[in-house]
Amino acid sequence: MTRKPLLIFLLTLFLTALQVQWAGPADGYDAGTISVLSPEVLGAYPGVLLLFLLAVFARRQLPLLRQAAICTGLLAIYWLLANYVTFDIRVASWSTFSPLEIWAHVLPASVASIAACGAAFFCASWLILRETRWNKAG
After folding, report:
1. pTM over 0.90
2. Angle in degrees, CA 110, 87, 38, rounded to 5
3. 3-state secondary structure labels for all residues of 39-72
4. pLDDT digit string, tens, across residues 4-18
5. Residues sharing a CB contact under 8 Å with residue 124, sequence separation 6 or more, in sequence order
6. Local confidence band at 38 (pLDDT 50, 70, 90 cut-offs)
7. Less packed terminus of the chain by CB within 10 Å, N or C?
């Protein structure tokens, strides 16, 4: 595996774990259990998707800023849905929440974390993709 895809994948893992922990509800979470909703596992799904998309984008020679923007937008949507599912399972399952009430809790809690992590992902991924010294063979 070359350096660029590995760095993008690790960046996705790290920022997804950070974002889910930041925006996730503090109630109802047992840190000792590893589940499908653990932040580390949640980061693997978009990481693989973004690597596939970046390979397609590189083949089509899409501009780097557009590549970073599309990947950041998709990642932000994924984070919002992950926050919704996390809240639904950890908090809403203990009470009666309608989907609208879940969104009313999830959206305000997600705005700051998605904005900060999305900006960090956009800048870092653009810098990683822009780096030309890694394009050399060897």
Report:
1. no
2. 90
3. HHHHHHHHHHHHHHHHHHHHHHCCCHHHHHHHHH
4. 888 998 899 889 888
5. 11
6. low
7. C
Residue type, 99: P
Residue 135 is classified by DSSP as G
Residue of 135, 103, 128 whose CA lies nearest to 12: 128
- Assigned token pair, 113: 């974390």
Amino acid at 118: G
Asked if 113 and 19 touch (Cβ cutoff 8 Å), the reply is yes
Burial 17-32 (b: 16+ CB within 10 A, else e): bbbbebbbbeeebeee
Token pair 């989907």 is at which residue? 99
> Could you identify the residue written with the tokens 């979470």?
29
Rounded CA gap, 71 and 11, in Å? 12
The terminus-to-terminus CA distance of the chain in angstroms comes to 12
Specify the amino acid at residue 8.
I
Contact yes or no for 13/42 (Cβ under 8 A): no
